[in-house]
């Protein structure tokens, strides 16, 4: 479901092939796999660490695994069971967002394919985003499928997208946002012509930031204070960090 590679103080988390055609849909198994990898990253973090998240195939992530929820409903012969499983996945995914927002190092998403719904939230949970400038789009599909947005999704969008009109287009038009448009919205930092260039750019940002050898604890606390609304909904509390040499 995902792999973790360590290159010195740089970590590379890769969403790998799965049973839903490399869409990397977020189900309990993938969510658990991502969280396990992030726990390992956190346990090995040093000042100067950085993390890149990337994916195989033409999707970064296509959001929650609705087929999984439907299969649970079929298993129990109940539409309610399917809905309850979707609610369960929404709750589980809170942990992924919380893990990224509290990780003691800079994070970069290398978006080499479509990022939709919870998959877009996964990308936006990173500090920086590099994206391919081909046919890939970012897309909040909830309006099109008839689902409201979880409160922490909206809080993350408010924290990351500064323009009210951009937030409106993203969630009330269900706009399929190109890489160039996402740069204008402030979601994406840079666009590149190929997947290889996206990954190289993400590596460059991570390596550049890692060279600063900032305190990971200070970095995490400053990030949390930058996004107080979503961190509050996720139960993340800010803690005071003081210089080690006074």
Automatic annotation (TrEMBL):
<dbReference type="InterPro" id="IPR001753">
    <property type="entry name" value="Enoyl-CoA_hydra/iso"/>
</dbReference>
<dbReference type="Pfam" id="PF00378">
    <property type="entry name" value="ECH_1"/>
</dbReference>
<dbReference type="InterPro" id="IPR029045">
    <property type="entry name" value="ClpP/crotonase-like_dom_sf"/>
</dbReference>
<protein>
    <recommendedName>
        <fullName>Enoyl-CoA hydratase</fullName>
    </recommendedName>
</protein>
